[in-house]
Amino acid sequence: MPDTYIDVIPVGAMFADPTYQRELDHRRAERMARDWNRRLVGVLEVSDRGEDTAPRYAIINGQHRWAAARTVDADMQLAATVHTGLTPEGEAKLFFDIDAKTRQLTTWDRWHARSAAGDATVTAIERIAAECGLAVTQDPGPKNLQCCAALERIWNRSAPEVLADTLVLVLDVWPGDESAKKAVVIEGIALVLDKYALYLDSGRLADAMSDITPRQLHARARDLQDSGTKGTFPQLIARVLVTAYNRRPGRGRLDLTILQRK
C-alpha cells in the first residue's frame, strides 16, 4: 500500500523523471541558487523508486529547488515528503494533482502529465495522431501537432472517427503545409465533418479544400469576422469550407445555419 513519511534526502539521490516533469527552467534554477535561502526551500515531494534504483528518489514537486540546491552544494540534503509504493504513472498523477493546486500549469504541462499518467482521452488522441504519422507535442516539426487543446475539444464534442478523418483529410489535401495544422483550421474542418456527417460528400469536400490554401482559408474567415459575421473562429473557418463545398459541382447544398446549432 502507498505510504508517506518525512525524511532528509541528499540531492544526489534525487532525479527528475522527464516522462511527466516539465522541462527544467535553467534560468529560474540559477536565479534561485544566486538568492539561496535555506529557510525558504520548504519540503519537496519525492517518490521512493526502491533501493535498487540509482538515483533512488523521483522528484514529484520541487525540481527547481532541487536543481538550485545542487548548484549551491552538491552534498546538500533537503527535507522531503517521501511517497512509497507509487508506479511512475502514479507519480505522474500525483505531480498533476499537486501542481494543479500550487501553480498555474500550462496546457502542455497538463497534457504531458496526463499522458504519463495514462489518461484515457490523451492516450486515445495520441494514438490516433500516431496512426496518421503525427505526434502531439509542443515542439514544432513537420510531423508534430501543437494544438492539443483543439484536439481534445474535437474528441469531446464528436464521434471518435471525426478526429481521425480530420487529420487524414488535412494530410491528404495539404501535405507538408504547416498552416494546415493550426488549431482553428483543424477544428473548423472537424466541425464540417461532424455537423454534416449525414449529408457530406467527402470527395467533394476534398476538392473544395484543394481550391483553397490554409492561409487563404484563414484570411477568408478573418474577413467574415471583420464584416460582423457571428461565430467562433473555427465556425467561420467551417463556414468558408461549406461555402466552397456548395460551389463545387455535385448534388445538394449544405445548410450554413446548421453550423450555429448545438
TrEMBL record:
<dbReference type="Pfam" id="PF20188">
    <property type="entry name" value="DUF6551"/>
</dbReference>
<protein>
    <recommendedName>
        <fullName>ParB/Sulfiredoxin domain-containing protein</fullName>
    </recommendedName>
</protein>
<dbReference type="InterPro" id="IPR046681">
    <property type="entry name" value="DUF6551"/>
</dbReference>
